[in-house]
Amino acid sequence: MAALLPTASGTPAAATEIPVEPPAGMRRRRWIPYALLAPGLLWLGVFFVFPVFQLAMASLWDPSGSIETGYTFAWSFSNYADAWEMFHVQFLRSLWYALITTVICVALGYPLAYAIAIKGGRWKNLMLVGVIAPFFTSYLVRTYSWKAILSDSGPVVDFLKWLHILPPDGRLLATEFAVIAGLVYNFLPFMVLPLYASLDKLDVRLLEAARDLYHGPVRSFFRVTLPLSMPGVLAGTLLTFIPAAGDYVNAQLLGGPNTQMIGSVIQSRFLVVNDYPIASALSVMLMLTILVLVMIYVRVFGTEEVV
Amino acid sequence: MTDQDLCIENVTKTFGGFAAVDDLTLTIPDGSFFALLGASGCGKTTTLRMVAGLEEPTAGRIMLGGLDITRMRPYKRPVNTVFQSYALFPHMNVADNVAFGLRRKGENRADTRRKVAEMLDLVQLGQYGTRRPAQLSGGQQQRVALARALVNQPEVLLLDEPLGALDLKLRRQMQIELKRIQTEVGITFVHVTHDQEEAMTMADTVAVMQAGRIEQLGAPAEMYEFPASAFVANFLGQSNLIKAEVTGQADGHVTVDAHGNRLAVPSARCRVTSGAALLGVRPEKLHLADDLDAVPSGHAAVRGVITDASFTGVSTQYLVRAPWGSELTVFVPNSGIANPALPGAEVAVHWSPAHSFLVGS
Ligand SMILES: Nc1ncnc2c1ncn2[C@@H]1O[C@H](COP(=O)(O)OP(=O)(O)OP(=O)(O)O)[C@@H](O)[C@H]1O
Ligand SMILES: [Mg+2]
Prior knowledge:
The structure holds 2 protein chains of 2 kinds.
Chain A: H1 5-20, H2 24-29, H3 32-58, H4 78-119, H5 124-132, H6 139-149, H7 155-162, H8 176-200, H9 204-212, H10 217-246, H11 249-254, H12 262-271, H13 276-301
Chain B: E1 6-15, E2 18-28, E3 33-38, H1 44-52, E4 59-64, E5 67-68, E6 79-82, H2 94-104, H3 109-122, H4 138-150, E7 156-160, H5 168-185, E8 188-193, H6 196-202, E9 205-210, E10 213-218, H7 220-225, H8 230-235, E11 240-250, E12 253-258, E13 261-266, E14 276-281, E15 287-289, E16 300-311, E17 315-321, E18 327-333, E19 346-351, E20 357-360
Parallel strand pairs in B: 3-8, 3-9, 6-7, 7-8
Antiparallel strand pairs in B: 1-2, 1-4, 4-5, 9-10, 11-12, 11-14, 12-13, 14-20, 15-19, 16-17, 16-19, 17-18
Helix pairs in contact in B: 2-3, 2-4, 3-4
The structure holds adenosine-5'-triphosphate and magnesium ion.
Adenosine-5'-triphosphate is lined by residues 15, 20, 38, 40-46, 84 of chain B.
């Protein structure tokens, strides 16, 4: 009995402490989320934050420097004015091409995603593989093959000439058509996949309810299907517009001097002309512009619910 | 029978060889409250879906108001459904959900708003107009589904277990409301339910469905008192069914032998008059007596031993083991008279032959 007494007298003190301090199990687990975040954060820190910082610094280097003589940091904001002066045509063109590409991708991708998700039935998976299949080949190789397809003596040009759609001296390569066609081709899967994901989740019973409540197929689409697939449209347009605006492969391989996009300008400034400050200024401008556009877009069209 | 009736004529619906609805013929009179009862999977929802136009019959036709609507598009039918799964639009608030059909019918804004508000008050959700369906409880969602269909005042309203998720009190309230609306507006209601009591209290006509067919159809009291089959006898309320063999027929009675007991059933209450049969008596129509001598003359009786007595408030439910081993359920109303029958006691179970019925086994 005496041996039990200390324990008994100690109990009240322990009892008051329990609510203050979380159980040991919880305390031990608190660091787990951070541990899981750490590798990703580290990766982003080394390969994203640092390079972006470096780029921002480079965009403010003294433009009189060169690779050989070295650059000095000089807060030269004039780089931005110069870059805009020289390349605003390509800059605006890139945004324009990206916009057209996105619109065409929605127009082509939505019916495709709808067909796969709603009407696909047992062919669903096969059709999805069809959408993803191009990724099995390199982006560059695929774009090169478009170059062959659209080439001046290629089958498409011959056929269009035979139909008199193209004049005898007409060509497709080095035109806006070729660049945008390439962009659409390359980014279509990025539109289709998120659209598919949101349409696939759509409860067909909701469409039945709409039909029961006097809504024909077209009205049901605009009042039920489309609003419920908006998260997919949003994701798809972002995944298409952002990379398309910065793309240089399509303009480089399928375009000409009059269809140059900002991506190829940046690439050649960095690697051919070696004009680091201007190239960096263009990169930062492109990044900020896209960031602002996306923020406005999400603010206007974003849906608060995660359907 | 007027030509405003909803007529389902020889309708069959098969899903890959399996007949979910099998040669169903039904006439639902205009303005009536029709309850469809049946076990899970017997084809109730499928029947409603064909009336709504969401499923096309494999064979047969559906007429409404003298018009063949079998192939009419669902959005053109003057029919609305309260779906078993609610199917509320998650991207719209409650008020917009309810207004969904009205807007399309070209109702003006002020009218729409007023009707929606009235309907939400009716289902006791007046304060919830701006909530999203995901922010409601199951029972609240069910009431929104009800309001969304009812507000359109269709010619036929199909209700697929519309009160299933509600608690008993709210359920009773909604039953009364539904019945009131139905009589006031004169809409034809086709009400699917698992709750036989609900079906009997609300409906003018009850149909019991089994395996895609109508087993019996009629006024609730009629069906309860004289079921057409053992299935109906057990589906609508409880029944004691005793195996019996018909032995003969004499002056308005059919006599049967049930495990050695000679019992009589009025001929008018016999669905079969020969061979093996089941003699049925409802538990509340059975009485207990201390022994066979105490049984009133003219009553049929069997002896037994009480195996269980449970007090349920309104009545006491006794289980009495008959000599042949099966148990009879007896409800003795709690009318205030002491009822000291205890488990183990030997008793006689008796009933008026006019309360028994004979169905095929
Ligand atoms: N689309 C379908 N494909 C195949 N079989 C189906 C389909 N719809 C229903 N069935 C089958 O048809 C039968 C009747 O289904 P139904 O939904 O009409 O039952 P129910 O009477 O409404 O049942 P519950 O009371 O459980 O809702 C079931 O056996 C079901 O499995
Ligand atoms: Mg059902």
